[in-house]
Amino acid sequence: MAGDVVNLRQFRKQKDRQDKDRKAEQNRLQYGRTKAEKNLTNALNEKAEKQLDQGRLERTPPEDD
User: Fold this and answer.
1) Per-residue pLDDT tens digits for 6-45
2) What is the DSSP letter of 10?
3) How far apart are alpha carbons 52 and 60 in whole angstroms?
4) What is the pLDDT of residue 43?
5) What is the C-alpha to C-alpha distance for residues 57 and 35, in angstroms, rounded to an integer?
6) Count of beta carbons in the 10 Å neighbourhood of residue 33
7) Whole-angstrom Cα distance, residue 19 to residue 25?
8) Secondary element (H or E) of residue 18
9) What sign has the CA pseudo-torsion 24, 26, 31, 34?
10) Which of 2, 20, 33, 56 could be joined to 37 by an S-S link, Cβ 3.0–4.6 Å?
11) Distance (Å, whole) CA 35 – CA 28
12) How far is the CA of 47 from the CAs of 30, 44, 50, in angstroms?
């Protein structure tokens, strides 16, 4: 019925290392892009925005006489 003995200091350090590794992986995904990849993403976003604006209908407000 006795459970395994766990050194809490080592467990805490291991957990901290795992948290740091997880945070580092997120940062690599978020910030680890090359300049060319960033430029490509910006160009694609601008192209999509222009295409969206081209299909937009202009509405004129009704004139009160």
Assistant:
1) 899 999 999 999 999 999 999 998 888 899 998 999 999 9
2) H
3) 19
4) 97
5) 36
6) 13
7) 10
8) helix 8-31
9) positive
10) 33
11) 14
12) 22, 5, 5
The rounded radius of gyration (Å) of the Cα atoms in the chain is 27
Q: In three state form, how does the secondary structure of 21-64 look?
A: HHHHHHHHHHHCCCHHHHHHHHHHHHHHHHHHHHCCCCCCCCCC
Would you say residue 63 has pLDDT above 80?
A: no
pLDDT at 5: 86
Collapse the DSSP code of 7 into the 3-class scheme (helix H, G, I; strand E, B; otherwise coil) and give the result.
coil
pTM (two decimals): 0.47
Q: What is the pLDDT of residue 59?
A: 77
Cα(65)–Cα(61) distance, integer angstroms? 13
In terms of pLDDT, which residue wins out, 7 or 55? 7
